[in-house]
Design brief:
The complex is a heterodimer of chains A (about 280) and B (about 300). With about 280 residues, chain A is α/β, with parallel strands linked by helices. Chain A has helices spanning about 15-25, 40-45, 70-75, 100-105, 145-150, 170-175, 190-205, 225-230, 245-250, 255-260, 260-279; strands spanning about 1-5, 30-35, 50-60, 80-85, 90, 110-125, 130-135, 160-165, 180-185, 210-215, 235-240. In chain B, the strands form three sheets. Chain B has a nine-stranded mixed β-sheet, with helices on both faces. A two-stranded antiparallel ribbon of chain B has the order 4-7. Classes of the chains: A alpha/beta (about 280), B alpha/beta (about 300). The interface between A and B is large, with 57 and 63 residues.
Chain lengths: ~280, ~300
């Protein structure tokens, strides 16, 4: 079972729910931190990192001896990452998506692809939790390749919890794709509601079943509750605003350590999701 | 002209809350919402849309079933698994493009032996020029699950700059996206000042450090504001020390206050909503930031 923890708005408590849920689930549990721009789960789970692998995008290098200046490479490239002005083309590595079109199209076979590192995947354990995280190199624009590399670690049969980045655009889609259920973490404020509706729209487009967790319940208005009622979205858990949780979070403590009664609630959340997925 | 961009590595630290307050305090300012993925500034500023334009960028492949011979060349070349193969009960395949996964590289279009793949331009969202009670605002909405957010951010910034120029204003204030990836790079490149909003948490500190690295790589002047500083005073001290070591000015600490959410519910900025201490702290941050912008402009001149 693959559960993704997402939210339109940032800072609503995705990492709190993801790490708390992983800690409270028994058996074979994986946690994949797919917020590769700002991976923070490790701060809470303090895993023992056992290994890492570089993530690269294959970018073209041109053999100037073989190149006859046809310019086919520049024509096929949609990203202006390889530009031919007669003579050997110039490559702009940061713009390259690694589609391989230039190498395929070159009539002289003058282009070979070499990986350019854009990030890293690290793996290890935190107690019974198998931990995997991706980290985008600072200055790199494209996170999806790093996320795809993290998601290769998904094991059939395990309970896999995926922490997604905020938003609704391509990196988020990469995180939520091929999951069985999405938990949308939000807060009961106008910003929380606006971004929740965007996230719901995205998940419905991808046909992924979803439920909502309301964090800091009680701080704002009842817009989120009313929206969920009218859309028939189940509210899986409400976490009331509690300064103890905010303080524990600031120190890097997980929810069920800060307030032990949440262990049972989070385990209940996992059971409820499993029931929804199998039905 | 000065351009202030408010960002944070970590989401939910208070970017939009600060931008809305700055908009109320600054004069002759154009606003830009560069968080095109989950824009919220409009909720506080209630813009009246004056101009609305589609955002077209990139292409998406589309297989014409009538001409497809199911040879599978497209699937062989696609590196993002965007070719879907559905089989009927007899096992006969149908090839189609998953438009959400397709990154528009055009390799399948080029290599399809039947020329059966179309490649229309995609409409990835919309952008708007609006009037608000705090002045003109440029904002956008990236289509759900769309790409090219960086290009849309650049478009929003350029339109906002044009309005600053046309109206003889001097300041552009931009609300940035979270993270450090494509839309953030597009938001802060070339800005006069980047304000990194953080909170005194382990995650806040961790994400702030990545923000520093990025701002440093791009060579943009940076300042820091610690929001909800009283949640963890010793972490606030750690952040202050970290900034001092890097010679990055801390332009203020803002307390945790329920007035911030109450103002949001009332669709107002904090400084319009209340005179309480939290509003006073935000005003001080604005004065510091404004002083930095003025000093920067003098240095450039």
């Amino acid at each position: 079972m693959r559960i993704v923890i997402a939210s339109g708005k940032g800072g609503t408590g995705k990492t709190t729910v993801a790490t708390g849920l992983a800690r409270s689930c028994e058996g074979d549990v994986q946690l994949l931190d797919c917020d590769v721009e700002e991976p923070d789960c490790h701060l809470f789970l303090k895993p023992n990192i056992e290994g890492s692998e570089a993530v690269g995008i294959p970018i073209p290098t041109v053999d100037g001896e073989k190149c006859t200046g046809h310019g086919e490479c520049g024509k096929i490239c949609q990203y202006n990452a390889i530009v031919s002005l007669g003579g050997a083309p110039v490559v702009f590595p940061e713009l390259c998506h690694g589609c391989g079109g230039c190498a395929l199209v070159c009539p002289e076979e003058a282009i070979t692809e070499v990986p350019r590192q854009v990030g890293v995947v690290e793996y290890g354990h935190s107690g019974h939790i198998e931990f995997i995280q991706g980290r985008l190199r600072v200055g790199e624009a494209m996170s999806p390749p790093v996320m795809r590399a993290v998601k290769k670690y998904v094991r059939e049969g395990a309970t896999t919890i995926i922490d997604a980045p905020p938003g609704t655009s391509c990196p988020v889609v990469e995180a939520v794709k091929h999951t069985d259920f999405a938990v949308l973490v939000t807060e009961p404020t106008p910003f929380g509601l606006n971004d929740l509706t965007l996230a719901v729209e995205m998940l419905r487009k991808l046909r992924i079943p979803l439920g909502v967790v309301i964090n800091r319940a009680g701080i704002g208005d009842d817009g989120v509750e009313a929206y969920c009622r009218s859309e028939g979205i189940s509210i899986l858990l409400r976490i009331p605003y509690d300064r103890r949780i905010a303080v524990a979070y600031s120190r890097g403590e997980t929810l069920e350590v800060a307030i032990p009664e949440y262990r049972e609630k989070l385990a209940g959340l996992a059971t409820a999701i499993a029931a929804k997925v199998s039905s | 002209m000065n351009e202030l961009v408010v960002v944070s590595g970590k989401g939910g630290t208070g970017k939009t809350t600060l931008v809305a307050a700055f908009a109320a305090l600054a004069e002759k300012t154009v606003l830009a919402d560069c968080d095109v993925d989950a824009a919220d500034l409009h909720l506080l500023l209630e813009p009246r849309i004056r101009r609305r334009e589609p955002f077209k960028s990139g292409h998406t492949a589309f297989i014409r079933q009538a001409d497809c011979t199911q040879c599978g060349v497209c699937d062989t070349h696609c590196r993002v698994d965007a070719i879907r193969i559905d089989r009927d009960p007899d096992g006969n395949p149908t090839f189609s493009v998953d438009s959400i996964s397709c990154e528009g590289c055009g390799v399948c279009v080029h290599f399809c032996p039947e020329g059966a793949i179309d490649f229309p331009e995609s409409t990835c969202g919309e952008w708007f020029v609006s009037e608000t009670r705090q002045g003109p605002m440029v904002h956008a909405r990236l289509g759900i699950a769309e790409e090219n957010s960086g290009k849309l951010v650049t478009l929003v910034r350029n339109e906002a700059k044009r309005i600053v120029h046309d109206r003889h204003f001097e300041l552009l204030i931009a609300d940035g996206p979270p993270g450090i990836g494509c839309p953030v790079i597009a938001s802060i490149t070339g800005a006069s000042l980047v304000l990194l909003v953080t909170e005194p948490t382990l995650s806040g500190l961790h994400d702030l450090e990545r923000g520093f690295e990025l701002a440093d790589q791009l060579g943009v002047p940076t300042a820091v504001c610690v929001n909800q500083h009283d949640i963890n005073p010793s972490m606030t001290e750690t952040i202050d020390r970290e900034c001092e070591q890097r010679s990055i000015p801390v332009v203020g600490h803002i307390r945790h206050s329920r007035d911030v959410v109450h103002a949001m519910v009332a669709k107002q900025s904090v400084v319009e909503y209340t005179e309480s201490p939290v509003a006073e702290e935000i005003r001080k941050v604005w004065h510091q930031v404004n002083a930095m912008l003025q000093a920067g402009a003098e240095t450039r001149a």
